[in-house]
């Protein structure tokens, strides 16, 4: 029996494209929990928001975090709710505005 493919959310796809434009940093968590390793790296390196941190937990698992002005968030949450983050608004694709044609009488 064929497996049904999961529908991809357009909002999340748009958020993923926006996050691709932000600087990414890859680190390893070591002995710390992934979120603790990300916080230590941010404070030690002086990273300014917005940024994405990819934390390698082990050889199979990575966690992604978004560093915003108001703190550290899970990247998946930010993909789905990118419109809530002011630093990402400037990176959003602008919707084309339509100009109504004015007829000459």
Brief digest:
This protein has 4 helices and 4 strands; from the N terminus they run αβαβββαα. With 105 residues, it is α+β, with helices and mostly antiparallel strands.
Question: Explain this structure to me?
Answer:
The termini are far apart. The protein has helices spanning 10-20, 34-45, 75-80, 86-89, and strands spanning 24-28, 51-56, 62-68, 71-74. It is built from four helices and four strands; from the N terminus they run H-E-H-E-E-E-H-H. The model has no long low-confidence stretch (mean pLDDT 87). A four-stranded mixed sheet has the order 1-2-3-4. Strand 3 and strand 4 (71-74) form a beta hairpin. By secondary structure, the protein is an alpha+beta fold. It has a domain at 23-85. Helices cover 31% and strands 21% of the residues.
Helix content: 25-40%
What sequence of helices (H) and strands (E) makes up the elements?
HEHEEEHH
Sheet/helix structural class: alpha+beta
Name the shape in a single word.
flat
How many whole angstroms does the radius of gyration measure?
19 Å
- Strand arrangement, major sheet: 1-2-3-4
Give the low-confidence spans. none
Instruction: Kindly report the average pLDDT value.
Output: 87
Total helix count?
Answer: 4
Q: What is the strand content?
A: 15-25%
DSSP strand tally: 4
Q: Any key phrases for this structure?
A:
4 strands, about 100 residues, alpha+beta, flat
């Amino acid at each position: 029996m064929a497996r049904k493919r999961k529908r991809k959310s357009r909002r999340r796809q748009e958020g993923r494209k926006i996050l691709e434009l932000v600087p990414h940093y890859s680190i390893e968590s070591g002995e710390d929990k992934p979120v603790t390793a990300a916080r230590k790296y941010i404070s030690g390196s002086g990273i300014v928001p917005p940024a994405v941190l990819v934390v390698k937990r082990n050889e199979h698992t990575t966690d992604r975090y978004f560093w915003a002005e108001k703190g550290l968030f899970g990247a998946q949450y930010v993909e789905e709710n990118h419109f809530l983050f002011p630093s990402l608004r400037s990176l959003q694709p602008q919707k084309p505005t339509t100009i109504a044609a004015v007829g000459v009488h």
